[in-house]
Protein: O-succinylhomoserine sulfhydrylase
Organism: Winogradskyella vincentii
Amino acid sequence: MSAKHIETEAIRTQIDRSQFLEHSNPLYLTSSYVFEDAEDMRASFADEKERNIYSRYSNPNNSEFVEKICKMEGAEQGYAFASGMSAVFSTFAALLNSDDHIVSSQSIFGSTQTFFDNILPKWNISTTYFKIDEVDKIEHLIQPNTKVIYAESPTNPAVDILDLKRLAQIAKNHNLIFIVDNCFATPYLQQPIKYGADLVIHSATKLIDGQGRVLGGVTVGSAELIQKIYLFARNTGPALSPFNAWILSKSLETLPVRVEKHCENALKVATFLESHSNVNFVKYPFLKSHPQFELAKQQMKLGGNVVAFEVKGGVDAGRRFLNSIKLLSLSANLGDTRSIVTHPASTTHAKLSEEDRLQTGITGGLVRVSVGLEHVEDIINDLSQALEQ
Ligand SMILES: *Cc1c(COP(=O)(O)O)cnc(C)c1O
């Protein structure tokens, strides 16, 4: 049979049925598994057999979740983690040695940046950042001890787009591992491995869960790299709980339809905001006004669910806007069915200097909207009344 479409893989990838022939996959809450005899046990521990031994290593629910993500991302293998950050931590901890060096996009998730700046230096691993408009200059940042190029696209919160094909080419030329955090796009909108990425990381907490219930993370990619990450994880214990894996595997069944609708709503919200006189600018990858509109169209199926815009009047206006919001949530999550607004300059990015903030595109009045699945007219009405305040 020919390769199936991503929607079908998300629904029909399923672990073997049990003796009860259930239609929907059951939840396997078990910490360990039994062996037939002494020889079976010996061979299993010697990795001569592929089977479940202990749920820190593998579990049927985790395997199903990982296999779905692998099929959707076009990856060989993967491992599921308790959170997006444990996926980020374990991936780097498994692959890097002391004195290694990372070249990373400057616009990355806050905790990932804290990990690079404050935790990895304990092992003398350093990071050099490039600005999103400096991709062509990054070869100058590569050192003899550089091991990884790291990027997110679209970025948070300014929704800039990085050229993944170009970054992959540079990584290949210098024999580096290219890792992409694909959380904002999901495998439905963008498959970085197709553009040459070696590994893809997801925080499954966001659009993959999509309903703000559980934390989860996953790293997928080449079998060779995943084997190293697996051996690190199996001995250090960041495994995803089988319950969360069961939830997340169910969530993947509806990911394509949910993301499709999120993007449809987001484009309407972005178009409305662009026409509003109290808005200085709107950033959304699939608006013609976006600086990387052409690249976004090539790289992504749709524009994603995050819209960034600047309220006229700076930090105070941004805060006043948030205080006037009635329906949308003020929350730290994103990719939920519920629309969420945040004001990065006074919250997630408040610790940065103004100069660093502006370099990552975060102006005082910048507001980030994670557009949800409420009726789009109700989302727009709430944003509209708050903009009049
Ligand atoms: C949320 C997020 C993470 C971290 O994931 P958790 O599941 O919260 O640990 C990493 N990268 C990006 C882009 C995120 O949005």
Remarks:
- The chain is about 40% helix and 15% strand.
- The first helix runs from residue 6 to 12.
